[in-house]
Amino acid sequence: MTPFSLRIFVADGDPDGLRIVEKSNWIGKALVFPRALLPQVKTRPELAQTGVYLLLGPRPDGEGDMLYVGEGDPIRPRLESHYAQKDFWTRAIGFTTTTAGQLNKAHVQFLESRLIALARAAKRMPLDNANQPAEPSLSEADRADMEVFLGHMLGMLPVLGVHAFEQAPAVSTSSLPTGTASVSPTLLYCKGKGIEASGYESTQGFVVCKGSQAVVDVVPSLETNKPARLVQREDLIARGVVEIHGATYRFVQDYVFSSPSIAATFVLGMSSNGRTKWRDAQGRTLKEIQELEAEQ
Q1: Are strands 28-34 and 242-245 parallel, antiparallel or unpaired?
Q2: What is this structure's pTM?
Q3: Which of 12, 117, 240, 246 sits CB 3.0–4.6 Å from 17 for a disulfide?
């Protein structure tokens, strides 16, 4: 990974208002703003350009956000349409270039298609997009340029609080250490009710590894006391993160949960403290490992 810097300009002096974000050595820029400011922001010259945009807002049926990816030539009319017709979104991020004319319709259609495909593959956030748009025909040079542009966008988005396109960190679990702290994460295990799952902590959250098992039936108290966890569970099942395998669910990909407790709750089908449920090969809990690392 290559270090980079971002320049964030708070255009109206309000940290929660319009922010213009530029990345070192990149021709693009991002405009980040809440929905309520669109009537003022839409006069910005950047939104008169061709670009791609994200709409984010709370899910109506559970905790967390949902996402819509779109493109516009220019962006402004599309945002005005969504302002009138789409209810869920509360903030927008628009990507265009520092100099007008550097992106055309085919470029942003390519970016839109790639972003939707990446979000569907990552399964981190539900999409409001109904269809997967086809990639437009681009020359080899244009396609290469847009892959670079996309790479810059994907590098910026987590800094802006958007993790919808991130796959779980690529770590070879066969070589993960199971002893003392290391640069590589420690592989941890969660067992119970005839199932076993493995996972590890990462900068994105807690990763449950592909092939891990999860119970099919949840305890009744989960629905009563943690209904949002049940909704999340049903959503990940619907999105194909896990599939039925005999008498258990099995993860078909590495998947990042926001915390070890949420991961353990999903695996065990009951409200769980991840810091005590996840253990290393020596039987030490995540809590014990973290306390030891803090002392060292």
Answers
A1: unpaired
A2: 0.83
A3: 12
**Tell me: the pLDDT tens digits for 131-157?**
889 999 999 999 999 999 999 999 999
DSSP state of 283: S
246's tokens: 């005999």
Q: Which of 56, 31, 55, 34 is nearest to 44 (CA)?
A: 31
Write down the residue that tokens 């929905």 correspond to: 35
Alpha helices in the chain (DSSP H): 38-41, 76-85, 105-122, 140-156, 220-225, 227-238, 260-268, 274-277, 286-295
The amino acid occupying position 148 is: V
Residue 64 burial (CB count, 10 A): 14
State the distance between the two ends of the chain, measured CA to CA, in whole angstroms: 27
The torsion of the CA quartet 232, 236, 239, 240, rounded to 10 degrees, works out to -170
Contact 69, 128 (CB under 8 A): no
- The Cα 264–Cα 200 span in angstroms is 12
Distances (CA, A) of 12 to 16, 48, 57, 95: 9, 19, 22, 19
Pure H helices in 157-285: 220-225, 227-238, 260-268, 274-277
Q: What's 219's DSSP letter? A: P
CA pair distance 81, 24, nearest whole angstrom: 32
**CB-CB contact of 165 with 119 (8 Å):** yes
